[in-house]
Amino acid sequence: MTTTQRASTPMNDQLHALLTSLDADDIRESDDRVYFEAFGKQRDVHKDFPLVLIVESSSYCNLVCVGCPHKDLTRRRGFIKWDLFTKIIDEAARYDVRTWLHFMGEPLMHPQIFDMIDYATQKNLSYFGMSTNGILLTERNRGRILDSGLTRFEISVDSLDPDLLGLLRPGGSPETIIANAHAFFEEKYARGRTHPVTSVSMRQMQENAHEVDSFVAHWKEILQPPDFVLAIAWNSWGGKEGVEHARYQAPSWRVPCLKLWNMAMVLQDGRMVTCDAMYDGQVVMGDVNEQSIHEIYNGETYRAMRQCHLDGRAADLDICNGCSDWYRELVLHDNLTAPAQQTLEEIRDVVASGKRQE
Ligand SMILES: C[S@@+](CC[C@H](N)C(=O)[O-])C[C@H]1O[C@@H](n2cnc3c(N)ncnc32)[C@H](O)[C@@H]1O
Ligand code: SF4
Ligand code: SF4
Questions:
Q1: d(Cα 100, Cα 98) in Å, to the nearest integer?
Q2: Beta pairing partners, 54
Q3: pLDDT, tens digit, for every residue of 96-124?
Q4: Which residue CA neighbors atom 3 of ligand 3 most closely?
């Protein structure tokens, strides 16, 4: 693989300096890092099944966040149907693939989300997670999450300043998001829970760059291992959203996009896509209602796209032409280190146990 170089801008350098000045176990910039640091890199390219499977439980959302293309979806919105969901989880369980229950939308809006979590628990998926915007993280729902077998949970916050949070994640009460996030951790620790491993996330944007250190310091006072702060490296959704926020600016050279070899998303209607840039189903790899994930992942459309990238012709594909997210993916994988920090050990132990602990 070609050696990567990190391109920089003044804002990126400033933010990077801030982030790297923090203790390494305070903050992560991608969940992949948590996963690979905890489990090692040996499985970072899977031969015939995605390494990460994203299941869009709901394509409805109750917020309209800056930088998220959910608001621009032209495809029909809906909740995933039960039979489709169980078909996906049955297959995911055969590979014990890392599975997330959200893509474009808010999973806690799905009326059967807790039945879905129970189903995945019964299937012994050792790593399955869900990210929420916190609006519906009510007292009842946080109790249900803490009682469930979910192994990873993420609360998206972006800022502790209600005015700024309201600008970055409009559509709901920022005070509610902040209060719900705090209440979740309070109850989790009061009940002595380690499951689910929970992160509070902040997307790295120019608007909240000044707040990174106080955000981390605040949560550091509250969070107990194995929970952590996730400072998410900006994703441009194929060049559609806020490319100016990207810390990892793509260089002039290009290598095949790792996403074609490591992930897949199943939209709520069953169509499968291979990366975030296809959030609207612009390119569809297959339909899980008709085929297995394995068949689609090894099928003609995937093979043709991969070959195009291997031949150095990625720019011939309309969807990949203006996209620089392949570089973010590459850097996040390539920069992985294996620090033997206590937090990572704890994450590994908790996640590897695969089951909730009392
Ligand atoms: C698309 S949301 C879906 C789940 C849920 N609605 C939520 O907000 O957590 C999943 C994650 O993507 C993050 N996200 C949205 N736009 C992003 C962007 N441009 N770059 C990086 N992460 C982004 C959100 O902050 C959230 O952590
Ligand atoms: S980031 Fe999550 S909460 Fe915000 S609009 Fe996108 S899907 Fe909805
Ligand atoms: S280059 Fe961009 S659009 Fe193409 S597969 Fe990779 S992430 Fe998706």
A1: 7
A2: 100, 265
A3: 888 999 999 999 999 999 999 999 999 98
A4: 320
